[in-house]
């Protein structure tokens, strides 16, 4: 039965990737003909919650940017205010068991792709960026963040334990000490706080300014062989990625065990009820 | 014979833990009914040297704090002036072979417990904190240190090589570079120097002020599920602890080989003679 | 055949080490009788390119300093202007297959020796220090750099991927984040920039001033047992060295595959042609 499930999962996987093999309405990918740099915009209103379809689309857009030989990719939100609110809780609440497996493996694939992708990547963070949104931003090579928003792996605050590869991504960026403090508190940093500890690299006052700064970062690689650059990046980030790949099955099982826990389901239900009352999604 | 020794060691272990299964006169554990936070005070005059009994008592008090559901533990010295002078040299000088094994495994157990314990921990360092004292402080999650005292892993200065897990604990806190500089020099940092490199987090001018600051740190977890928090902490610190556990037998043997070296015994003898002449313990 | 090649390589290795078993004209090793500290000067004009002979000589001089019981070694360039230009490209261009193997294993040996050597080491960087020159400097325990020169692992800029142990050496010094930024850009830092991120520890305005500062660093170990110090250093740096030793055969094969690639040979040819036209070596 395990084998049959696996096959069904694979078929499902293939189906999803076929379905979203071209860039879809949940993201847009626009190449700047002058610079050769692509802008990948998240556009799943209202808050770019990362559901299966959005994650697939990000994955496919990152692949598309390889194929169209983009010189780099700028990841941003189509709409100011929220970069991404993180994983879509609807994927975890009373989930279909096949879909939730595909959801998590797609998140894993998306991170592997983004964290290891060949071209330079910059996050232009034009809004709040908690949890999974922070993971996406941290997985880029450079971060420019708009003032008056917050960023952080605040999973703890939501009763969720950030997976080990979320933690490794943060440790690589801000070190062991700051990661422990941030993660145990589920801390959301203001842009200034984030700048101070190196969670972001620059501050912007508008998305336009951010895109300009992102292009200035990309320009630093103008005289560098893209192949050499990407092999060097893989050599720096490789151990973290290999470690995740080695443990990805256990990571999936851990996630399924967590979400299928009745108490967790009850908490998610109450949380969603509260969101509804607030008038949000 | 090895087996017989092992059994004897285990019996000894059990005996010690029974003997100190309740919190003893070498430490006190006081719960603040208003905050739910416990204060664990070291009170082995004159300098809180870490002998087998004190280490057992710390271990037991940390377990007791789990049982009484403390919201956190503040580790401090009952008397201003010395937080802890580190390992008691008397445990290493002409040692009984059974006792010295229990001594070292109890130190290992104590670190495993403190470094991985479920509730938040803060060291209120109201005096000097060299060697093993520094290890205890570094193993907490947050450090507040009184001005005009010193802290550091100064083992090198005493002719001792800090064990790998002392080194890992320091690397996790202040990084590889600063750890190498500190360890090769056996450097003792003033509180201001320690603050600058992140070896401590805050400065205090009195123990009362330190306790207040420690409680302010604890309060940051007020809205966080203790289970989620502790699993997150374990995920961050887990690899370091697992690495130590994997190597603890080799670590014990290494320590025994070192202390049973005749030259080391001679040095310890001269050192103790010098201390006696000085009028200290 | 593989075995025959290995034997030939070993014989060649032995021959080389015999040939340079005493300190040669490519380096000088001078012990200061007052301080007991040796100065190891690189003197292969014009730019101390690291060819097989220079690397062997450095290796032998480091061994010689052990034998003559130097209290420490200061690594510097005999002539101001260039500390070392890095690996000699002539070793990689149309190479003899036996020699290039010996070249790379000698570089590996030289790093293992320098990174793990028992006495304290200081680089007095009295000139530019790119690529392999930066590796040598980073492998010392302390770095003092003259103003108006540059330092960095700029391999990427030259179309070369820095080997994993170059990257580990840098990560240990300046952390994961700064290393990634520096390596993907092939960045050369001014002395002030290098000071800011911790790639060097102090600035000097002349070699004399640098030697004085280096001796001041050495003096910090005056009261420390050399054996304890060296065991502590090995405990801090050991994991990085062991990791390299475990992978050194794969590292050699990777280097040979890279240099024997026809496109790489063509690039090296064009680069050397350009250097000739410039009038440099």
UniProtKB/TrEMBL annotation, chains A, B, C:
Entry superkingdom: Eukaryota
GO biological process: fatty acid beta-oxidation
Cited Pfam families: ECH_1
GO CC terms: mitochondrial matrix
Reaction catalysed by this enzyme: (3Z)-octenoyl-CoA = (2E)-octenoyl-CoA; (3Z)-dodecenoyl-CoA = (2E)-dodecenoyl-CoA; (3Z)-decenoyl-CoA = (2E)-decenoyl-CoA; (2E)-tetradecenoyl-CoA = (3Z)-tetradecenoyl-CoA
Annotated compartments: Mitochondrion matrix
SUPFAM superfamilies (UniProt xref): ClpP/crotonase
InterPro entries the record matches: ClpP/crotonase-like_dom_sf, Enoyl-CoA_hydra/iso
The keyword Acetylation is assigned to this record: yes
Molecular-function GO terms, alphabetical: delta(3)-delta(2)-enoyl-CoA isomerase activity
Keywords: Acetylation, Fatty acid metabolism, Isomerase, Lipid metabolism, Mitochondrion, Transit peptide
Pathway: Lipid metabolism; fatty acid beta-oxidation
Function of the protein: Key enzyme of fatty acid beta-oxidation. Able to isomerize both 3-cis (3Z) and 3-trans (3E) double bonds into the 2-trans (2E) form in a range of enoyl-CoA species, with a preference for (3Z)-enoyl-CoAs over (3E)-enoyl-CoAs. The catalytic efficiency of this enzyme is not affected by the fatty acyl chain length.
Summary of subunit composition and partner proteins: Homotrimer.
Protein name: Enoyl-CoA delta isomerase 1, mitochondrial
Lineage per the UniProt record: Eukaryota, Metazoa, Ecdysozoa, Arthropoda, Hexapoda
């Amino acid at each position: 039965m395990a084998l049959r499930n696996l096959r069904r999962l694979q078929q499902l996987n293939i189906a999803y990737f076929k379905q979203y093999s071209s860039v879809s309405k949940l993201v847009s990918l626009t190449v700047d003909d002058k610079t050769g740099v692509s802008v990948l915009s998240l556009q799943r209103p209202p808050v770019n919650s990362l559901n299966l379809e959005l994650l697939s689309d990000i994955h496919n857009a990152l692949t598309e940017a390889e194929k169209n030989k983009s010189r780099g990719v700028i990841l941003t939100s189509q709409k100011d205010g929220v970069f991404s609110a993180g994983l879509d809780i609807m994927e975890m609440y009373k989930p279909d068991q096949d879909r939730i497996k595909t959801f998590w493996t797609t998140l894993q694939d998306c991170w592997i792709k983004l964290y290891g992708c060949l071209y330079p990547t910059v996050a232009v963070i034009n809004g709040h960026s908690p949890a999974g949104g922070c993971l996406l931003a941290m997985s880029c090579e450079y971060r420019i963040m708009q003032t008056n928003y917050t960023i952080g792996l605040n999973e703890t605050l939501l009763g969720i334990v950030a997976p080990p590869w979320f933690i490794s991504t943060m440790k690589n960026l801000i070190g062991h000490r700051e990661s422990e403090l941030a993660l145990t508190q589920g801390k959301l940093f203001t842009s200034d706080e984030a700048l101070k500890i190196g969670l972001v690299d620059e501050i912007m006052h508008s998305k336009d300014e951010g895109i300009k700064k992102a292009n200035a970062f990309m320009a630093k690689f103008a005289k560098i062989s893209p192949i050499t650059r990407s092999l060097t990046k893989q050599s720096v980030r490789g151990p973290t990625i290999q470690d995740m790949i080695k443990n990805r099955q256990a990571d999936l099982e851990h996630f399924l065990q967590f979400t299928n826990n009745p108490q967790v389901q009850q908490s998610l239900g109450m949380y969603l009820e509260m969101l509804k009352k607030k008038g949000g999604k």
